[in-house]
Every structure is written in C-alpha cells, then in structure tokens.
Amino acid sequence: MIATSPPGDLLPDTGLLVHPVYLAGRGDTATVYEALYDTRGWGKATTATGLMFTSPRQDAQVAYLPESRYGGWKAVQYRGPLGTPLWWATFSRNTPAEITSAFTTALVEGLPSNHRDFLHGGPDLSSPAGALAERGWQTDDTAMYLYQRSPDGHAYFALRKGDLDDYMELEGEGPAQWTMYGCVDHVNGERWHADFTSATPLYLVRKAVLALSSTEPVERPLSGIPERNLPYVTVSPVGAGTDQRRSAALARTPHASEAGATPTIAPAAAGVPVSGPSRRR
Q1: What is the extent of the structural domain holding 121?
Q2: Where is this region: Disordered (predicted)?
Q3: Higher pLDDT pick, 275 / 82
Q4: Angle 202-212/97-110 helices, nearest 10 degrees?
C-alpha cells in the first residue's frame, strides 16, 4: 500500500484516521489510564516523579514517569507486596498509546489470577514472533538479535539472543529480552521504543505486539502526527465527535496534559481539504 500523506491545507486539529499505528504519534494517553482507573482496588497517587497506580495486592505497579531517562510508562511486578521485582516493561514517552494501553489492560485482566488464566491453551499461548510472522513481518537473524520488521521497514520487534544475568537485566545494566520500536530513519531519526525483560509474561508481550502490528487505523489530530512521519502514513478524514468515555477518563486524570493528551478533534468535511495555514513539509 502506498502511503498518502495529508494535504498541507488542513487545520492542525483536523481529525484523521492514520495507519500504521507505529508512525501515528503518541495519541491520547487517557486510553492508558482507563483500565487502571476503572478496575476496583487499584490505588492511584500523584507523586513527585509522576503518577503511580498500585495493584490491590500491592504486587504490581504501573507508573507514568516523565522525568525518567526516556520518560513514559513503566510496569513492574514483584514477588510479594513491594518485594523483589520479577520483571518490568517500559514504554518511552512517544510510544503510541494504543500499544501501551494494550499491555496495561491485559495486565489488569491477568494479574488477579497471577497470569494463570492466560498460560494454558487458547490464542494467548502463541508467541509474539509467531503473531508477527502470521501478519507478514519479515525476519532478520543476526549474531546478537532476531529481528522482525514490518512490511514497510519502519517498525521492528527484536529478541535478544544469548544469556544475560537476570539481576543485571532487571537493573538495566544490559539489554532487555524484547524490544519494539518505530521510526522512519534508523540512523538519525527519533524513535519510540518499548522494552520487556525476560520474565515478563509472554501473553502481555504478545498483546503489545498485536497492537504494534494492527492494520486498523487509529485516530489522531493532524498536529498529533509527527511531521517527519507524514510522507509515510496513510490517512483519511473522520467526522466530528469526541469519545465521551475517553474524555471523562482524561478529565479525571491528574497532569493529563503532561502525560501527552491530544487536543480535542475539530470537525472536518469528509474527503474535503479544510482551508487554513499550511504545514511545513
């Protein structure tokens, strides 16, 4: 499919359906909060470093940490209440919200059974790599990594090969087991990325992978799509209207603007460019 970038005479808040998701921009992070806010028993707190959500058993935390090395989100599960970490997953600040929310939603659903309900049989048993292969992603095998790349070459999922001490991995002193990222310039371009340590439950990684490789378009205002990505995305206009559930979640979210919420989408005539200032290409 040939990418069709939006015309230059659209208003910045024009609502667009964008594909692929990995080039669509950060999006509305209210979708990341929804599962955490809507699940009974999860504690919520605003801290000096960001936002913190704690599971009912205090054996898992999900945090928005804007001042951390890469900003964005971090999820951690512990052996017991606030005990030794078992695994962590991080999502940099520009990770599309659909990918992060797929992971956090699956975590909320699977944690009460300690992931047991997702480990035996059913579609969630298949590997992340298998899911990508089924969707036509190509495999590149190197000495250190097994890469799977999207058909357009702008997104990757990488499996680290070889052994790494679990403690070093959890301390961030070496690469995580899995990494996914998207960018249009692999040498100099800015990219978003997400990392998952080796003990991360496989079905959680798979949920993120399915969101990464989804062929469904996502909604963004024109201003929410990174300018460097415009020549590489396929877009179509959407009508006016705001998702009431998402708006309610955003309204009750502390520091929502710092978390990367997108502006309200303005009306756009379907298929008709809206006159206004041109964007620099």
Answers
A1: 15-29+100-251
A2: 237-281
A3: 82
A4: 150
Q: Which of 202, 233, 222, 219 is nearest to 98 (CA)?
A: 219
Residue 270 lies in a domain: no
Residue 141 sits at φ, ψ, to 5 deg, of: -105, 120
CA of residue 115 relative to chain centroid, distance: 21
* 25 within domain boundaries: yes
| Number of domains composing the chain | 1
261 pLDDT above the threshold of 50: no
The answer to whether position 219 is within a domain reads yes
User: Who contacts 187 (Cβ-Cβ below 8 Å, separation ≥6)?
Assistant: none
Residue 207 lies in a domain: yes
Give the C-alpha separation, 89 to 158, whole Å. Answer: 14
61-78 tens-digit pLDDT: 999 988 877 789 999 999
If we measure between CA atoms, which residue out of 136, 69, 53 comes closest to residue 101? 53
Query: Are the beta carbons of 256 and 37 closer than 8 angstroms?
Result: no
Report residue 47: phi and psi, to 5°: -115, 180
